[in-house]
Amino acid sequence: MAKDRRKKETCPNCKETIGAANFCSNCGQENTSKRASLKYIFNDFLGDYFTFDSKLLSSIVPLIVKPGFLTLEFINERRARYIPPLRMYLFISIVYFFVTSFPHQVPEPLTPEQWGEQVITFERVDVAQTAVTTTFQEVSEGVDSLGVDGYIQSLDIKNGLAVFIAKAQIKGIQEDNSIDDRVQKGFSLMMFLLMPFFGWVLKWFYGRKFNYYIDHLVFSFHFHSFLFLFSSVYWLAALFTVDFYDKYIVLAVAAIYLFIAMLKAYGESVGRTVWKFLLVSLIYMLIFIMTFATTLIISIATY
């Protein structure tokens, strides 16, 4: 049944004459004088940006249970029923960073005496590869007496990165916070920039299978979407237990999923997929480590 709209003769958006039509033929705006409700704004937001309709279920389910399927559907131009790859990644990544903002354990508030007794470890990177373990109270007293630079020198910390980290730790003690939020923001940007590199790695190994880079980039979007989705669900499950979240489980699931997705999407034999999977994983981990180290250094340096 058609919607009962209170209509206008002229489109308020582009001033085109539209008469009794339900939508403006020039700009596409709905022809109604009804005031926009909160429900309308909410549905419009979800519909335009995250496609919260039947596409959500038809996209999330195969993403989880059929690795590589959505990529093949995109390549074969069967796309209308699914959420676009980039939109899916953006939505799931937002969910992931929201979910992981909840800590697994909420500590009891510390008294000033208990706070001062908390242990902190400074890595002293030198020939002996030793570390300095002290308390927050001792750090505060040392900084008050010698200053930040003087206190770090007294710890005999020689490695540049270790000095950066030590300064960030001391600043966190002084301001009663940490650099976690800044690092997390940097991590979200890092992952977004890392996906195109992963796509190029895949094209390097599978360029003859799919000639266009966009096909490999879509695979990267789908893989990272699953990775963030699984991590979100796992993180939520970990909220109900103590020390349940294990990054090695996440890595294991990601590795299994990536192998199956490569096998299904690119359609090569198991043997060829195994050695390509190992090389792709190795290159990806090296890029990830270097990118994360850069992000960490920048986060600390600008803290």
Task: Explain what this protein looks like in three dimensions.
With 303 residues, this protein is mainly alpha-helical. It has 11 helices and 2 strands. It has helices at residues 38-50, 54-65, 69-75, 85-99, 112-116, 136-154, 160-175, 180-206, 213-238, 247-266, 270-301; strands at 119-124, 130-135. A two-stranded antiparallel sheet has the order 1-2. A hairpin with a 5-residue loop joins β1 and β2. α4 runs parallel beside α9 (213-238). It starts with 37 loop residues before the first helix and ends with a helix.
Question: How do the helices and strands line up, and which of them pair or pack?
Answer:
Elements: H1 38-50, H2 54-65, H3 69-75, H4 85-99, H5 112-116, E1 119-124, E2 130-135, H6 136-154, H7 160-175, H8 180-206, H9 213-238, H10 247-266, H11 270-301
Antiparallel strand pairs: 1-2
Helix pairs in contact: 3-9, 4-9, 6-7, 8-9, 8-11, 9-10, 10-11
Give the gist of this structure:
The protein has 303 residues and is mainly alpha-helical.
Q: Major β-sheet, in short?
A: 2 strands, antiparallel
The fraction of residues in strands falls at under 5%
Arithmetic mean pLDDT: 76
What is the number of strand segments?
2
Helix content: 55-70%
Tally of helical runs: 11
Give the distance, in angstroms, between the N- and C-terminal Cα atoms. 58 Å
Silhouette = extended
The structural class is mainly alpha
Low-confidence stretches: none
Elements, N to C (H/E) = HHHHHEEHHHHHH
The side-by-side strand order for the widest beta sheet comes to 1-2
Gyration radius over CA: 26 Å
